[in-house]
Amino acid sequence: MKADPKGVLTGSHYIDGDFACCEGALAAGCRFIAGYPITPSTEVVERFARRAPLVDRALFIQMEDELAASIAIQGAVWAGKKAMTVTSGPGFSLMMEHIGLAAMTETPCVFVDVQRGGPSTGLPTLPGQADMMQARWGSHGDYEIIALSPNSPQETFNLTIDAFNLAEQYRVPVMLMMDECVGHMMERVVIPPAEQIEITPRRFTKLPPGEYLPFKPAEDLVPEMFKAGDGYRLHVTGLTHDFRGYPAMSPEVQEQLVHRLVNKIRLNAPKIWRYEETGVEDADVVIVTYGITSRVAVEAIDLARKKGIKVGMLRLIVVWPFPEERIFELASRGKAVVVAEMNYGQVFFEADRAARGKAPVILAGHGGGTVHNIEDIVKKIEEAHRCRS
Amino acid sequence: MSVIKELQKASLSPAAGLTSPEKHPMDDFLRMDRMPHIWCSTCGIGVSVNCFAKALEKCAYPLDDVVVVSGIGCTGRVAGYVKVDSFHTTHGRAIPFATGLKLANPKLKVIVFSGDGDIIAIGGNHFINAARRNIDITVICLNNFNYAMTGGQVAATTPADSILSTSPYGNFETPFNLPFLAESVGAVYVARWTSLHVYNQTNAMVEAMQKPGFSFIEIVAPCPTIFERQQKMGDGLDRLRWYCENSEIRTDAGTKEADIRLRDKMIVGKFVDVERPTYLDAMNAHYQEHLGSKYKVYEG
Q: Which end of chain B is less crowded, N or C, counting CB atoms within 10 A of the terminal residue's CB?
C-alpha cells in the first residue's frame, strides 16, 4: 500500500540524519514514539515532539527511562499503531530486555541506535560503530533480528521506511544502526510524494475469533497478527508459548517456537540481504564496510587505486542478517577482504567466518570518536593485497 | 473427579453453552482450558481475580474492550488466566506497556494486575511516573510482602523483622507505605483492602476502573506457603482471621498513617478520591490552547 500523505513532508530539505529519521518514520506510518533523551539521538525525538501534534493520530511521549520507552512502543503496537523508539549506546543497553520481548512476542517495531563511542558513557558526542553485535545478540536467549545501517541523511530517511516495512513483513524488531556522524550530518534529503512511498501494512488475521491461533505461523514462518480490542481476547506472553499464545514449559514447544524465531529470518535471509557493490568485479581487494565508514572508505579506495591496487567496495545496507554467501563467493574468487568499521572487530569476525579461509580477511578498525584516517585504511588495503599475493 | 477437572470438562465439552447446567459462572471470564492455575491453596490472588471478575460485571464494560497487563511473579500470572486481551510482559514493566496501549487506543479499558515486587520495587520508577502523568489506567497491586515466585525473598514492602530467605535474621529495611507513596505521586484514587474484604475489594475495583486517571488499589494478600509460614502466622485461613481482627476500616485516615507493621493493626479503606485531568485530557487541552485550529484532538 502507499504511504498516508498526512505524514509525508514531500519536498527537498536540508536536514540532518536525525531529522531525516523522524521524517522517514512519519512517512512509514509511525504514529507513536516513546523516547528518552540521549546524545546523539535526541534530535529525532525533538523533531517528532514538534511534528506529532500536527499529524493526525500521532503521539509522542517522553518516558522516564529507556526501559519504559522500549516497552511503551510495544503496548502501542499491540493497540494497532506503528511505533519506534530512539536511543544511543547506554540507552540501547537498557533496551535489551525489551528487544528480547519484541522478538519473543513477534512485535513489529523499530529501535533506532545513533551510535556513539563506548563502552559505558564513552564519547557521548562522537561517533562509534561498536553496538553492531549488541544489536544482533544483546538480549538473552536465541533469536534473530534485522539491522540496517544508512550512510547519509537521505539513506536514513529511506531506510527508516524500510525498517518499518521489514518489521511488519517479518514481525520482528528492526534496528536502524546510525552513527553520530550520519545523525548530525546535514545534507539534502528529497522526500517523494506519498504515492511513491511503498508501505507494508500489518499482517492482521482475517480469521474470526475462535478459529485464529495467534502464534501459528504462515508459510513464510511468520504468524498473522491481531490487536487488542478486536474481540479475539487472546494472550501474549514473553514465556515460551504454543500456537494459542499459552505458556508451555516444555522443550518441545521451546524447540518449535525458538527455532522458528531464528529460522524466519535465517531462511528468509536471501530476501532480506541488501548491499551495494562498486568496482568489485575486477578487484583484488574488497572493502566491506557500512554507515559513515563507507564514505571514508571511498577516499581510501581512490588512493589505493592510484597506487595500482584494484580495490572494490561492498557496502552493507542490511548488516544483519549478514550476506555470508556473497562474502564466500568473493573470497572464493581470490579477492582479499578488508573490513572497515569503527570497532575492533564485530562485522569483521562475521566476514572472516564467511570467507572460510578462502582469502585473507583483515580488519581496519579503531575505537571510535572520529572517522577513520584514510591512510590507515589504505595501509590495510596494501596489507591485504600483499597477503593475497 | 476433582472440581477443577469437572469444570475443565464442562468448559471443553461441545455441550457447554449458555444453557448448559455445567456452565460455571466464571466461564466467560476465565480461560478454563488453562486450569488448574499455578497458585497455592489459600493464596490471596485467586480471591482478587474473582473480585475483579465481579467488578467488571458490575461496570458492564464490553469484555472485548478490557485489557489486562501483568508483569512477572505470582500475581503476574493473572494475565494468563483472564479471558480478555491480556499481556504478560517483563518484570516491572507492565505499567509502561499499559501506558503505550492506553495512549495508542484510549477506548481500551486497561488494568495492570501485578505484585508488589513487580510494581513497586523493580517497576517503581514507572509507577511514580505513570501516577504523576495521570495515565488513565487502574493498577491493582497484590501485596504479599515477599518475592513468592522465586521462593520467598525480602521485598520493598516486607514489614520490619520479617524472616525471609534473604533476610534470614529479620528484615531491617524500612518498607514502602504504598497508599502514601501513591498519593504523594499523584494517584487520583487510592485504596487498600485485604483478601478478607471481598465486597470492599470488588467495590474499590469498580470505583477505580470508573475513575478517569491513575487509580491504585493495594490488596494485602496471604502467601501461606512462604510468608505466613516463615512468620509462623498459620495458614491462609488463620491469616484471614488475623485480617478480621487487625484491620481497622477507616474513612478519614491519612495515607501517612497507613504504615504496615508485622503484627500491629493495619489501616484499610479508601484514602484518596480526587479529580485531576488525565494525561490525554491535559495534552488535548494544552495543544488546543497553544496550537489552535492546527491541532486535531487526539483520540487514538
A: N
Number of structural domains (chain A) is: 2
Domain boundary among A196, A212, A227: A196
* Amino acid letter, residue B254: G
Which residue among A34, A65, A231 places its CB closest to the CB of B100?
A34
Percentage of chain A lying above the pLDDT 90 cut: 99
* pTM exceeding the 0.90 threshold for the entire prediction: yes
Give tens-digit pLDDT for B58-87: 999 999 999 999 999 999 999 999 999 999
Residue A234 located in a structural domain: no
Instruction: Identify the domain containing residue A18 by its residue range.
Output: 5-196
Say what the alpha-carbon torsion angle B256, B260, B261, B265 is, to the nearest 10 degrees: 90
Does any domain span residue A139?
yes
Q: Do A235 and B102 touch (CB under 8 A)?
A: no
Angle at A27 between CA A26 and CA A28, to 5 degrees: 90
Identify any residues that bridge with A174 across adjacent strands, giving them in sequence order: A110, A146
> What is the tally of helices (H) and strands (E) in chain A?
13, 16
Residue A17 lies in a domain: yes
Considering the domain boundaries, does residue A206 fall inside one? no
- pLDDT digit string, tens, across residues B248-279: 999 889 999 999 999 999 999 999 999 999 99
DSSP character at residue B295:
P
Can you read off the three cell numbers belonging to residue B273?
478520591
Peptide bond connecting B36 to the previous residue in cis, omega within 30 degrees of 0: yes
Q: Are residues A35 and A171 in the same domain?
A: yes
B194 touches chain A (CB under 8 A): no
Residues A279 and A180 reside in one and the same domain: no
**How many whole angstroms separate alpha carbon A126 and alpha carbon A123?**
5
Contacts of B210 (CB under 8 A, 6+ apart): B59
Superfamily name with CATH number, domain B38-294? Thiamin diphosphate (ThDP)-binding fold, Pyr/PP domains (3.40.50.970)
For A68-109, what is each residue's pLDDT tens digit?
A: 999 999 999 999 999 999 999 999 999 999 999 999 999 999
Partner residue facing A75 (CB), from B79, B100, B294: B100
Nearest to A260 by CA among A233, A236, A240: A240
Prediction ipTM score: 0.97
DSSP string across A188-200: EEEEPPGGG-B-P
Choose the final residue of a domain: A141, A162, A196. Answer: A196
CA atoms within 13 A on the CB side of A69: 28
Q: Between chains, do B90 and A76 touch, taking CB under 8 Å as contact?
A: no
Phi, psi of B36 (to 5 degrees): -75, 150
Tell whether A9 and A149 lie within a shared domain.
yes
